[in-house]
Each structure stands twice: as structure tokens, then as C-alpha cells.
Amino acid sequence: MNKKRHNIFAVVLAAGASKRFGSNKQVSTLGGETLVQRAANTARKVCGEKTFLVTGHEWWKVVNAAGADRPFFIVNEKHRQGMGASIAMAARACRSRADAMLLLLCDQPLISAAHLQALIDTWSGDDHEIVASSYDATTGPPVLFPKATFGDLAQLTGDQGARTVLHDSRFAVRTYPLEDAATDIDTITDLDVLRDAAAFPQ
Fold first, then answer.
1. How many whole angstroms separate alpha carbon 10 and alpha carbon 13?
2. Does 167 reside within a domain?
3. Across the strands, what pairs with 105?
4. Positive or negative, the Cα torsion across 154, 20, 55, 122?
5. CA 136 to CA 183: how far, in whole Å?
6. Which of 50, 66, 141, 169 is the least crowded, having the fewest Cβ atoms under 10 Å away?
């Protein structure tokens, strides 16, 4: 099946308050880019102008940190409710235009455009098939959600993200092995470790 026929939007979640980090981690720099800029640029390499940010906490800082070529953004005024509220807003924004939504986070800096493209290529095009990344004996983001999931995603709240949809028996979940997704930034120490890693891609 020709994946180019599908209208796929990339959504970068960048609304959280980064409580464990101690400040807004989305605007922190790594490899010459802010985390939000890195994620947005990676997404745009795959989905082009069909990329947008979901912002919330200190949204103006996050938008500015996304760089001069920042994508379209929306502000989640309910970001304190947790990631679920941001995913719900993204689903509502996509449901009338997209065949699928590629959801990624700002704090997984090792994710590349090739990784995102691999998730898209793994998708059969079935409207009830989710493609999730597989790492550390679990499944999680980045995740491709087809249009049939949007209604359920639009109802999410709280900090559980999209786990309920991932475990819903109505949907088949295919996985793509992506160990680089296991590297995420929750604390300043996590960021410092990556900054000190000689192998970190600049």
C-alpha cells in the first residue's frame, strides 16, 4: 500500500511543566538546539507543514524556543490536567483532516526522522491499527494513531497518556523496535549525561 496516499500529521507534545526537571525542559539546549526545536525539526522532515506543537506551560517560551521556522502551534489551557489533555486537544485538531496522527515527545532527543518514517512505513494503512515504538519491554511514543482512535483520544484526561487506547481490544497494535526511544529526559542529570556523551549526534 502506498503510504503517500495517507494524510499523516505529526504532533509534538510540549505542554508539560517539567516538575522533575525543575524548569521548562522544552527550552533547554542539547546539541545546539532546544529540545522543542529538535523535536519539531525532526517531525517536519517527515510530515512537513502537517506538523504542529501542543504547548501549555509557559507556552510563549516554548514557541520562541522552537526557532524561526517553528511549526503551527496550539495552546492547551488545561495542561495541568496532564498529558491526556494535550493528546485530546491534538486529536480534536486532527480528526477532520488527518488519516493518522504521529505523536512524539520533546524529551526523547535521540528520535530521528528515520525512526518516524519507519513507524509510518510499518503502518498497513488499516484504520484500526496503531503503530507504537517498542523499547525496555514496553510500548510507547512515538506512536502512530489512525483516525479510528481519534474519538477515544479526544476524551483523554489525566497523566496516563494514551495507555487506555493502546490497550483497547478494538485496535490492533503493531510495534517497531526503537531502543533510542528509551532515552528520555526527566531530570537535569539526564540532560547532563547526554551532553557529556561523546556519541551524541550533533
1. 10
2. yes
3. 13
4. negative
5. 10
6. 169
Whole-model pTM: value is 0.91
Q: Spell 184-194 as b/e; 16+ CB within 10 A means b.
A: bbeeeebbeeb
Q: Is 201 inside a domain boundary?
A: no
Domain extent at residue 71: 3-194
Q: Coil, strand, or helix at residue 194? A: helix
Cβ distance 134 to 175 under 8 Å? yes
Tens of pLDDT, residue by residue over 93-116, are: 999 899 999 999 999 999 999 999
Q: How far apart are CA 57 and CA 18, in angstroms?
A: 9
- Spatial distance between the Cα atoms of 29 and 40, rounded to a whole number of angstroms: 14
Task: Measure the CA–CA gap between 112 and 104, rounded to whole angstroms.
Answer: 11
More confident residue, 38 or 2: 38
Phi and psi angles of residue 100, each rounded to the nearest 5 degrees, phi first? -160, 160
Q: What is the CATH number of the domain that holds 56?
A: 3.90.550.10
Cα distance from N-terminal residue to C-terminal residue, the chain: 35
